[in-house]
Write a structure and sequence with these properties.
By secondary structure, this protein is mainly α. The chain contains 13 helices and 2 strands; from the N terminus they run αββαααααααααααα. It has helices spanning 8-18, 114-139, 142-167, 171-175, 185-205, 216-252, 257-260, 266-285, 292-314, 321-324, 326-348, 353-383, 386-401, and strands at residues 78-80, 90-92. It is elongated, with a radius of gyration of 33 Å.
Length: 408
């Protein structure tokens, strides 16, 4: 019968008795290696040298602060000075602050430049102006109709220029029309712009019918343009709400934190900004007697814009900070002040052409400031890793504890 094999506990006790009573577990300040069960400990095992005073590995650029000589998930973040069994002061690694991933940002910031922010403004201006033109057409106000149609054509042309400039090559816009993808805001927006542009163009060209001769081929064209412009103006107005709001959906569909979390508010803000800018065109172009629809548009647009801007500055918690500080905060505050000033001036100065013009200019400036403020707020949130990491940790903790962080 074979002798009894020693148990694991017996072998461990024998091994422990052979160790020095107070031998070091980590490399000594002189660089000598201590004997362990696996042989000498490499000081670079944790990815770098250890601190000679504490025996701890310094933090690296990736936010990892693991101790030297420890490998695997069982590494402990603290060690007591004074040996294996002794007491003494407890040395604990500070909590790591994650700032990058191997020297790279957590989230890649948008590559869009100022031309996309300008595209957001001109798209909303085109949508609001076409609604103004349709209102003037249906209520028999030719000045509002003409101003709305011409401005809509100019704004949508500028939008196409800004978009193609961002794409880099004009044929890329054509290539996007090869497919129609309802789940892609960019694809849907391309088709909306394609439908709106020709309709706005026909409606604006119809305003030149009175300048054409009454006889011959040009006379026939002059007689055909008004009904064609009437139908085209209504088509442009029907697609205007989609043109005004799809850019908000497009921004919210990205991974940019302050855009993504503001998905309920961005379409509301952009719709209100579009109405306010269209009303501004009417206040600038029409005499006070015909500017009644423009004043009502200004009130409705300002209400939506102010409500949405207030929500993104207060509802998102940490992700509202980019909209309240720095350049985005200054732009949004300026937009709020200009919006209020424009609406008050339009209502109180309804009999003054100068007051109407100043109110229209204020509303146009408010629309520009709001669009650029929203744009730069999202860019700022993408550049700071805190706005990506902290909400993720809060969501993880909420799933573990079953507590809704929004309710807190």
């Amino acid at each position: 019968m074979s002798p009894r094999r020693p148990e694991v506990g017996d072998r461990f006790r024998r091994f422990r008795d052979r160790l020095p009573a107070h031998g070091p577990l980590l490399p000594t300040p002189s660089g000598s290696d201590a004997t362990t069960s696996g042989g000498p400990v490499d000081a670079t095992t944790s990815g770098g040298p250890v601190d000679a005073a504490t025996g701890l590995a310094p933090h690296n650029g990736n936010g990892n602060g693991r101790q030297a000589g420890t490998v695997g998930p069982d590494s402990r973040p603290s060690r007591r000075r004074g040996g294996r069994r002794g007491g003494g002061e407890e040395l604990r690694v500070p909590e790591a602050e994650f700032t990058s991933y191997y020297g790279r940002p957590v989230l890649k910031a948008p590559v869009w430049k100022w031309d996309i922010a300008a595209y957001l403004f001109t798209g909303g201006l085109a949508a609001g102006s076409s609604l103004l033109g349709a209102g003037g057409q249906l209520t028999g106000r030719p000045v509002l109709r003409r101003a709305g149609r011409v401005t809509a054509l100019g704004a949508v042309s500028a939008s196409a220029v800004f978009l193609i400039r961002d794409l880099g090559r004009p044929e890329r816009f054509h290539h996007m029309l090869r497919v129609a993808k309802p789940t892609s805001p960019m694809s849907v927006g391309t088709w909306i712009l394609t439908a709106f542009g020709p309709a706005a163009g026909v409606a604006a060209v119809a305003e030149a019918a009175g300048w054409l001769p009454r006889r011959g081929l040009l006379g026939w064209v002059g007689r055909a343009l008004p009904p064609a412009g009437h139908a085209a103006g209504l088509v442009a107005a029907a697609t205007a709400p989609a043109l005004a709001t799809y850019t908000g959906v497009l921004l919210a569909d990205t991974a940019v934190p302050s855009w993504h979390e503001a998905y309920p508010e961005l379409p509301v803000i952009f719709a209100g900004s579009a109405l306010a800018s269209g009303a501004a065109v009417g206040l600038l172009a029409a005499p006070p007697a015909q500017a009644g629809p423009a004043r009502r548009m200004a009130v409705a647009g300002a209400a939506l814009e102010l409500f949405g801007a207030h929500r993104v500055e207060t509802r998102l918690g940490l992700l509202s900070e980019p909209y309240r500080s720095g350049r985005p905060g200054r732009l949004l505050r300026a937009g709020r002040l200009l919006t209020v000033a424009g609406v008050v001036g339009a209502l109180l100065g309804r009999r003054s052409r100068a007051a109407g013009a100043l109110s229209g200019a204020a509303l146009l400036g408010a629309s520009v400031a709001t669009r650029f403020g929203i744009f730069y707020g999202g860019v700022a949130s993408a550049r700071d890793p805190r706005y990506t990491v902290v909400p993720q940790r809060e969501r993880v903790n909420a799933r573990r504890t079953g507590v809704d962080p929004a309710a807190d």
